[in-house]
Amino acid sequence: MKEYQVVGKSVRRLDALEKATGMGTFTTDLALPGMLYAKVLRSPHAHARIVKIDTGRAEQLPGVEAVACFKNTTRVKFNHSATMTFTVPPMEAVLDECIYDDVVRYVGDEVAAVAAVSERIAEEALALIDVEYELLPAVFDPVKAMEPDAPDIHIKKAGCFLCGKNIPGEKIHLALGNVEEGFKESDVIIEETFYLPVQKQAQLETQAALATVSNNGDITVWSTTQTPHPTRQILSHIFQIPQSKIRVLNPPYIGGGFGVRIGLSAKAEPIAVDLAMKTKKPVKIVYDRKEDFTSTDTRHSGIVTVKLGAKKDGTFQALQLKGLLNTGAYCSFGAETIGVLGAMGLSVYRAPHMLYTGNSVYTNITPAGAFRGFGNPQAMFAIETVVDMMAERLGMDAKELRLKNIIKPGDPWILPYSCQSTGLAECIEKGAKEIGWERRGTLNKPGDTLRRGIGMAVGTHVSDAWPFCGDFSNAYVTIQADGSVHVASGVPDMGTGTRTTLGQFAAEVIGVGMEHVSVTIADTQSTPFDIGSHASRTCYVAGQAVMKAATEARGYALAYAANMLNEPLEDLTILDAVVFCRGDRKLTLAEVARHAHLHNEQFIGVGKVIPQNAPPWLAHFAEVEVDTETGQVRLLKMVAAHDVGKAINPVIVEGQLQGGVVQGMGYALSEEVIFDREGRSQHDAYHKYMLLTAEDMPEIKAIIVEAEDPTGPCGAKGVGETGQVATAPAIASAIYDAVGVRMKQLPMTEERVFQALQELQKR
Amino acid sequence: MSKLKVAFQLNDKDVALSVDPNDTLLDVLRGQLNLTGTKKGCGKGECGACTVILDGEAVNACLIPIMKVMGRSVQTIEGIGDEKNLHPLQEAFIDKGAIQCGYCTPGMIMSSKALLDKTKSPTQSEIREAIAGNICRCTGYVKIEEAVQAAAEKMRDS
Ligand code: FES
Ligand code: FES
């Protein structure tokens, strides 16, 4: 394995000091002189037409400077997710929303907004807006929404692309071999259907934006977006203004994201920009927590069916997967998530025959979009539970069955890029050892009411969005006149450590310590175009761009130094910010850069990357205790063994895994947003939405496996999302080991487990 | 709205302000005093991002009407240490990788500080109880707990 100086070391995060001292700036902290505050009037109805809206009384309230609604605001259609900027032909981006429409499609949909001198006055003004609604029939169930007599939530017209009743985008069809043949060749076939809930990102900083418009029309927007450059493209489209007139940036910190702001921060940016244009003053909008729950993207709920056929010896013969995702009132990432669900679900195991069919469907609930894992957790809860059942049916150990069937490099697989690395077998072995897998099935005595169990599940993910969406990165790396290194990359750091990791790549390539490196991120004006932070891509793709740019900058510096020293270029190298020639210290990098500066030269490298893709791999193990008298599940230990390729900063990687696992634990056991019969969210506040707290934590062990991928920067692969992927099925598998019930619906709440136990007794 | 005068100790200094009596301590800290280190995640006492120390107790600043602070002592993240003189908790959060997005961090540190000010050798469950009202959606709490333990150790040694 290659020896590195900075890469692979848990260097201190570049953002940690500011954040630990309360000095880090987030969008919600910003204020500008003369700034106005915006508040939004939201629909109380799940589906209605606005027949009359009168904003007169609100406009009269002292302190109110503008009221916006569909009547006085642009109605250009867009998609608040970044899909509208990188959906690759022949797929078409679905453009199905405007800032305010004359039809509202879910409880919480935008009706109007007020800009006023204080948040309180803006809020008061909302109550003075008179709206008359004509109620329209609504549908909440994804299966019913596809029936011929269901209400149409969107009509097919330019931009709003439907391929069936309430089905946005495309139906996805992926096939390998012929599953019918495969099932005929199988000795055992298991088919099961699973029900997945709405989960909420619940990131700590709500959606927020602050917009200014100068009198020559230049727009600046500070916001919580995970993708400043695509956000600029979307705003340019909505307001029909050239991209060059718009600047979008993070301030620079974002209080989490997990996918909720890939593209716009819900509608924070366009609402603020529109009101800033109307008032000619800076306008700030901060969603309150309730709005963040009701009116920003969620994880897709849905239904997944798995049919698995195997030979008696355990060889998988055929795997068929069907997906249906409820994308809510607007498409957002609906068309892509359903594709990733199938693609990821079918790329873990080798089977000669595979088939996936799936689609998303509109209903009148909060739109669903991107959330860590992006369809993959839905797929793997279903698949891994069926694999567990198959092991039992075949009388095989669940771990051995997996080891027998997992993909190896060179196997045929469903994805259009190749699998060049896998450490999954190592993840499985290391995780099994850590949890004590051999104890499985031996933990209880007959009659125990507190019963223990051990379970496992595996999975994979992506390292960027290609080929599901467009994906590329650019970066600038400059060696300044004093020898220090500056990196400019368009990706935000929403807490995942991007900034530090990118700095490490530049430091490593050029040959300087981290103290010489500074990193500018997430600003359309000072960084080159980048898709942004999503799809576990920032380290893998933006990292490659930074390495390329740094290599180029280093090349210029060395060429210059060779000239200065009159030595052959190939004999020179840079270590610790010093230029060495055949092992002898010659000049500091600062001396070279200073000399160059005085002779009119600077070392600027540009890195442009069109990435491939690479699969990270993961094996999760859980130990639980189930109370058979109440159905309560207590987690005792979670093990997450992940092949992340080269871990660029191991502490950051561990943090990603631990955080992802805990979100997965919530998905497994408690987190769910339920809508009532009128389509109103029953879980629109932190105290109603059951997040796990510090007191609920089991022992969590993250194990890093490094099967380096030849396509990744220093061999790195994606890690941002993997922790979520197979947590729930590992816990389900442990529950089965403990009490013998197969849970087919998430979350596995006390009530649901208790009910399943009761049914088991009846049988 | 008529303004009222309020005087209290903030980070060991006396402050006197005229305030809107409907404001909370959080509104005044962030809006009037520009102390934005104390974060707002919900405004309803449900997330702990706004935790400050009031007369030695960790409280949610978003639930404290500003007039209730009269004559009392408030400590915020800005008052416990800076880059030259970090509080052991700040140092431990940085060193242990307990900070990701950082939005929960000031509140976490203040809740932990209220604990360590009283309890020199906290048990795991005392630490967990102290931060049970602080939501962190990024870290999974593992490294936060480690950081609080490390800080407690350091404070005992010094
Ligand atoms: S902002 Fe005070 S508890 Fe959430
Ligand atoms: S670090 Fe992001 S919420 Fe705790």
Describe this structure in words.
The complex is a heterodimer of chains A (763) and B (158). Chain A is 28% helix and 24% strand. Chain A is an alpha+beta fold and 763 residues long. Chain A folds into three domains: 16-23 and 472-609, Aldehyde Oxidoreductase, domain 4 (2-Layer Sandwich), CATH 3.30.365.10; 31-136 and 204-256 and 261-294, Aldehyde oxidase/xanthine dehydrogenase, a/b hammerhead (Aldehyde Oxidoreductase, domain 3); 301-466 and 613-762, Aldehyde oxidase/xanthine dehydrogenase, molybdopterin binding domain (Aldehyde Oxidoreductase, domain 4, 2-Layer Sandwich). In chain A, the strands form seven sheets. In chain A, strands 3-5-1-14-11-12-13 form a seven-stranded mixed β-sheet, sandwiched between helices. In chain A, α10 (376-394) packs parallel to α18. The longest helix of chain A has 28 residues, at 538-565. Chain A is globular, with a radius of gyration of 27 Å. The model of chain A has no long low-confidence stretch (mean pLDDT 97). In chain B, a hairpin with a 2-residue loop joins β1 and β2 (13-19). Chain B has 158 residues and is α+β, with helices and mostly antiparallel strands. Chain B has helices at 25-32, 88-95, 105-118, 124-130, 142-157; strands spanning 4-10, 13-19, 51-54, 57-60, 73-75. In chain B, 34% of the residues lie in helices and 16% in strands. In chain B, α2 packs across α5 (142-157). The chains are: A alpha+beta (763), B alpha+beta (158). The interface between A and B is large, with 56 and 58 residues.
In short, what is this structure?
The complex is a heterodimer of chains A (763) and B (158). Chain A is of the alpha+beta class and 763 residues long. Chain B starts with a strand and ends with a helix.
Please render the helix and strand layout as text.
The complex is a heterodimer of chains A (763) and B (158).
Chain A: H1 16-20, E1 36-42, E2 48-54, H2 56-60, E3 64-69, H3 83-86, E4 103-104, E5 110-116, H4 119-126, E6 130-135, E7 162-164, E8 167-168, E9 172-176, H5 179-185, E10 188-196, E11 208-213, E12 219-223, H6 228-239, E13 246-249, H7 268-279, E14 283-286, H8 289-294, E15 301-310, E16 316-328, H9 334-345, E17 353-362, H10 376-394, H11 398-405, H12 424-435, E18 450-460, E19 473-479, E20 485-489, H13 498-510, E21 517-521, H14 538-565, E22 572-575, E23 578-581, E24 584-588, H15 589-598, E25 603-609, E26 617-627, E27 633-643, H16 650-669, E28 699-705, H17 722-725, H18 727-739, H19 750-762
Parallel strand pairs in A: 1-14, 12-13, 16-17, 20-21, 27-28
Antiparallel strand pairs in A: 1-5, 2-4, 2-6, 3-5, 7-8, 9-17, 10-15, 11-12, 11-14, 15-16, 18-26, 19-20, 19-25, 22-23, 23-24, 26-27
Helix pairs in contact in A: 9-10, 10-18, 13-14, 14-15, 16-18
Chain B: E1 4-10, E2 13-19, H1 25-32, E3 51-54, E4 57-60, E5 73-75, H2 88-95, H3 105-118, H4 124-130, H5 142-157
Parallel strand pairs in B: 1-5
Antiparallel strand pairs in B: 1-2, 3-4, 3-5
The structure holds FE2/S2 (inorganic) cluster (FES) (2 copies).
One FE2/S2 (inorganic) cluster (FES) sits between chains B (99-104, 136-139) and A (204, 256, 495).
